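User: Can you write out an input/output pair for a complex, sequences first and structure second?

Assistant: Here is one pair. Inputs:
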Amino acid sequence: NAGVTQTPKFQVLKTGQSMTLQCAQDMNHNSMYWYRQDPGMGLRLIYYSASEGTTDKGEVPNGYNVSRLNKREFSLRLESAAPSQTSVYFCASSVTDPYEQYFGPGTRLTVT
Amino acid sequence: QQQVKQSPQSLIVQKGGISIINCAYENTAFDYFPWYQQFPGKGPALLIAIRPDVSEKKEGRFTISFNKSAKQFSLHIMDSQPGDSATYFCAAPHPFGNEKLTFGTGTRLTIIP
């Protein structure tokens, strides 16, 4: 079991560029989440998906879109990157207990 | 919007001492309060959680204490070790449930020899 995997590990973008962060889990979990982590701000929820085919906004969704491609995969897209989106992005998943979440290793994104 | 206030922001404890991190919440749909531990360069991992039909839960050197009337809960690490040096996050369920957690801002714990 690889658990939750994320690609890429690191990425540098210029302002206005677009990119997609990939996340996959092999634990047959129903729910998946995208968070961003910034110094002094903790983990803030961007989007989540309670099941395949459904997505919902979290605390900080502006500037992001998501796709729940299937039960395993949940991608996060930045259409036009801004310096304010410089952050570490974590994907997580959970099974029947939504409060026990399993996190991936993160993607460190820098927007210049 | 749920807020979870966590303190202190950073904490330095001598090896063998007790580390204490506190959190306060506003409202929650369910009484379930997890703590996550994060090492540098890694994702957070669930450390311990309490479902307060009890006011305290202990797992090894880690203890959660919960005060429902005060809407506060805390993590105690007994006999703190250098390997405990990490960032700790408390969390609380969103007031409307919906399978969401609200995280505290984190505490960077450093255990010195």
